[in-house]
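Design request, tokens follow.
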């Protein structure tokens, strides 16, 4: 049985990664003052941050139309028997549900939609593993079982400069944003039950990043091999410095550098940093 792998743009995989495994990507869009753009297709991350800096209107994000999924699945049905379609958390976007509905509308191919319950590079971990296994001839059940196993040691923590982005975008409660603003804290955020919530409230960004490192250190001590990614919101030098510092301390962790693109960057804001990791399987 031939299996195709599909994801959305918020996995922020490189074009080289997508080409290597023939991964198909459906873009989400960001709506700015001068129009709507499909991220990773019509606008880059750096272009996005330049456009929104000082803008009067807060950007909005849009999930892909179901028709885009239907069109892609119909195309894939010509050459594949099954699709594994992996998407950002259903708690912050309807993209996963769109893939589910489109899969029910297309004949001649079986679509397995997978809710990553997360986003960005950790979502990409699922995608790359699924694509690698599909190339090696694994069945859909074997791939989905492995993805569920990966959940057991997959973490992602985010430190944002300004909680108002998450609050205005509806991804964090007004109460949580208000508390963070009043106390001038730099909360460590994470995904819990598919939504973004505060993990701990910490006074400074430096201490918040140190706390995230402590969480990584615990898993690094308990597992033979981890893959970890520093994720930055238009602060590549800061992210790279942090990555290099961590790489010198944890020899059993394979570090990578990625970014928050326009859609996720809309909700986190410029200057945010994240660290995600997973057990290497």
């Amino acid at each position: 049985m031939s299996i195709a792998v599909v994801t959305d743009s918020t996995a922020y995989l490189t074009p080289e990664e997508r080409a290597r495994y023939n991964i198909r990507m459906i873009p989400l869009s960001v709506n700015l003052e001068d129009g709507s753009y499909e991220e990773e297709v019509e606008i880059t991350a750096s272009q996005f941050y330049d456009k929104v800096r000082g803008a009067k209107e807060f950007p909005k994000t849009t999930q892909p139309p179901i028709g885009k999924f239907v069109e892609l699945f119909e195309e894939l049905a010509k050459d594949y028997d099954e699709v594994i379609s992996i998407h950002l958390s259903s708690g912050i976007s309807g993209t996963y549900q769109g893939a589910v509905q489109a899969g029910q509308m297309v004949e001649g191919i079986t679509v397995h939609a997978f809710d990553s319950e997360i986003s960005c590079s950790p979502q990409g971990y699922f995608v790359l593993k699924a694509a690698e296994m599909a190339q090696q001839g694994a069945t859909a059940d074997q791939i989905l079982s492995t993805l569920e196993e990966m959940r057991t040691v997959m973490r992602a923590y985010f430190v944002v400069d300004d909680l108002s982005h998450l609050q205005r975008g509806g991804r964090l409660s007004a109460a949580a944003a208000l508390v963070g603003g009043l106390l001038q804290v730099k909360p460590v955020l994470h995904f819990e039950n598919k939504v973004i919530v505060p993990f701990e409230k910490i006074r400074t960004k430096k201490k918040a990043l140190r706390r995230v490192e402590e969480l990584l250190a615990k898993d690094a001590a308990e597992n033979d091999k981890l893959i970890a990614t520093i994720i930055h919101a238009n602060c590549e030098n800061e992210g790279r410095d942090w990555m290099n510092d961590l790489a010198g301390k944890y020899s059993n962790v394979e570090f990578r550098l990625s970014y928050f693109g326009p859609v996720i960057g809309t909700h986190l804001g410029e200057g945010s940093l994240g660290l995600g990791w997973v057990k290497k399987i």
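Comment from the thread starter after seeing the answer: thanks! The chain has eleven helices and 13 strands.
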